[in-house]
Amino acid sequence: MSTGTRDSGLELLLGSDGWVTHHENGISYSLDATKCMFSWGNRSEKLRMGALDCTNEVIVDLFAGIGYFVLPFLVKAHAKLVYACEWNPNAVIALRRNIHDNSVADRCIVLEGDNRITAPKVVADRVCLGLLPSSEGSWVTAVRALRTKGGMLHIHGNVNDSEEVAWFDHVVQSITSISRNEGLSWHVTIHHVERVKWYGPHILHLVVDVKCAQI
């Protein structure tokens, strides 16, 4: 939409409101379907994030939505604390409800607004950048959010299947350049590549786990 958000076009024909709840992997996701949309295609990635051991980790999710990755990090991966950044007010309402309903509100700080302004700095062991088609506008924000010693960036993107290697190189070179500009001495490498789904003809939804280690 012109606001920069993805809004629902669903029209309510019967009932008093559009709130629905989806149960997945022991987590409940609630949303007003007339205002927000549920993302089905990233189920495998939610499972992968939930399978991580994030005990004692602080995580920053720059595009929290209704809690797609925030909840797996908290409920399944047992993160110590998650900063959840989101600028869609309707998604924020659902996010606050979901962290409450899943009994993890005490370990989640919701930061409403543009993550380039609201995101914390030098606190994170891990940063999630789950925005399609590209999260590049917040790569500087992600680097600034990581601790000085570095950490892990989970960078999502839509990439033509013939341009995967070029995109991997672009990610590494960009994060390396940003870190140097921020006065950080990091060795930046791609730790893992996850091919989540086909987004369209020849367009893959990819996630690269980018490891930033202090030299």
TrEMBL record:
Pfam families: TRM5-TYW2_MTfase. The keyword Lipid biosynthesis does not apply. Keywords: Methyltransferase, S-adenosyl-L-methionine, Transferase, tRNA processing. GO terms for biological process: tRNA methylation; wybutosine biosynthetic process. It comes from the Eukaryota. Its EC number is 2.5.1.114. Pathway: tRNA modification; wybutosine-tRNA(Phe) biosynthesis. Residues 1-214 form the SAM-dependent methyltransferase TRM5/TYW2-type domain. Transmembrane segments: none annotated. It catalyses: 4-demethylwyosine(37) in tRNA(Phe) + S-adenosyl-L-methionine = 4-demethyl-7-[(3S)-3-amino-3-carboxypropyl]wyosine(37) in tRNA(Phe) + S-methyl-5'-thioadenosine + H(+). One of its GO terms (molecular function) is tRNA 4-demethylwyosine alpha-amino-alpha-carboxypropyltransferase activity. GO terms for cellular component: cytoplasm. InterPro entries: MeTrfase_TRM5/TYW2, SAM-dependent_MTases_sf, TRM5-TYW2-like_MTfase. Coiled coil: none annotated. This is tRNA(Phe) (4-demethylwyosine(37)-C(7)) aminocarboxypropyltransferase.
